[in-house]
Amino acid sequence: MAGTEENVVIRAGDCTLTLMPALGGKISSLRVHDHELLQTPLHPYAPRTHSMGFAEGDASGWDECLPSVSECSVVTESGEAFVPDHGDLWRIPWQVLEETDDSATLRATCFSLPLQLTRSVILSQVTSGWRLQLLYSLTNLGQTAVPWAWAAHPLFTSEAGDLVILPSDVQNLRLEGSGGNRLGRNGDEVSWPIAALACDSADGSTCDLSRAYPADTGLGDKLFTGVMQQGWCTLERPSVGLRLTVRFDPKVTPYLGLWLCYGGWPDEAGLKQVCVALEPSTAPVDSLAEAGSWSRSLAPGETVNWPMTLEIEPIRTG
Predict the structure, then answer these.
(1) Is 242 in contact with 37 (CB distance < 8 Å)?
(2) What's the domain count of the chain?
(3) Which among 313, 312, 246, 311 has a CA at the least distance from the CA of 281?
(4) Is 97 domain-assigned?
(5) How high is the pLDDT of residue 199?
(6) Which of 292, 249, 301, 8 is nearest to 136 (CA)?
(7) Rounded to two decimals, what is the model's pTM?
(8) The CATH number of the domain where 202 resides is what?
(9) Structural domain boundaries, residue 289
């Protein structure tokens, strides 16, 4: 059994993945040939506290958001619990349970609620390219029922010309937030892929949400699908000749969050994210405190499992 200090590197052919157990079990790098597919750090890697905001960290790579994406207070059978920004797990060390040349299993336990997440990652080369399988297992270690919500948080680097593709039956999205309220306000319904600009509604201006914009546009939008019937979404990157397809089981993780950021976050001066995050999730909202038909809890000792897969395929660019 390994510790938490050493980075874990797994490989399959020309694809390499790096994990940082000491820094939230983060997938810090996912490279195909010389192409980095994940957002690079906005700040140097450094230890995190239990209360710092996500923007105070490196805000890069691929983290797991549990038991909430946004900070909130929730009332449980054991009393009130405070969940910090982007949850607990990105800010604490993970334990390496197993490591091979092409796979690794890590585990961490939340501090705001008694939830333990185990995540296995398996990287393989396949006929069509490369496949990254992620297997999740969540257990309630407490003595009472515990509410929870999970979202994957892979920040895929992007540039103008990239294309976000959703199943054809997804025609509307729920708005969680939009920089400058350009698409509207939290809870508004937005058409996909062509959305009306709320700030220019009088003249009927629209934007194509499926198209990535240049880094200097300063845009940042968070949106959610409703319950997905087909568990997939795709980011095509013509400039590097790759297609990234996230697949998930909508029976277990029925929603998809989209974070479309082209220089629009963080709000503070300094480096900005330029990325597209494709986020399978258990809820269509960022806050665990926002209850609805999607709300979940685990009984004492109960475990729930779910899968997620990232397929990386070469595409023709000419």
Answers:
(1) yes
(2) 1
(3) 246
(4) yes
(5) 72
(6) 249
(7) 0.96
(8) 2.70.98.10
(9) 8-314
143-189, pLDDT tens digit by residue? 999 999 999 999 999 999 999 999 999 999 999 999 999 999 999 99
Q: Residues with Cβ < 8 Å from 200, sequence gap 6 or more? A: none
How confident is the model over 123-148, as a mean pLDDT?
98
CB neighbours of 146 closer than 8 A, spacing ≥ 6? 67, 76, 113, 114, 115, 140, 297, 298
Residue 3 lies in a domain: no
Q: What ranges make up the beta strands (E) of 145-254?
A: 146-148, 151-157, 163-165, 172-178, 189-191, 194-196, 206-208, 219-224, 232-237, 242-248
The answer to the question of residue 1 being in a domain is no
Average pLDDT over residues 282-303: 98
Identity of residue 203: D
Q: Which two tokens stand for residue 153?
A: 């948080």
Residue 101 gets the label, from left (phi > 0), alpha (psi -120 to 50) or beta, of alpha
C-alpha span between 74 and 88 (Å, rounded) = 14
Q: Is the pLDDT of residue 3 over 80?
A: no
Retrieve residue 97's tokens: 């349970």
What is the spatial distance between Cα 64 and Cα 91, in angstroms, rounded to a whole number? 10
Whole-number Å distance between alpha carbons of 36 and 30: 6
Q: From 75, 81, 132, select the one nearest 246 (Cα to Cα).
A: 132
In a domain? residue 46: yes
Q: How confident is the model at residue 4 (pLDDT cuts 50, 70, 90)?
A: low
How confident is the prediction for the chain on average, in pLDDT? 96
Closest residue by Cα to residue 244 from 235, 231, 253, 254: 235
* Residue 119 near residue 24, CB atoms below 8 Å: no
Residue 2 pLDDT exceeds 90: no
- All residues at 6 or more sequence positions from 233 whose CB lies less than 8 Å from its CB, including other chains: 164, 165, 166, 167, 245, 246, 256, 258, 278
pLDDT tens for residues 51-72?
A: 999 999 999 999 999 999 999 9
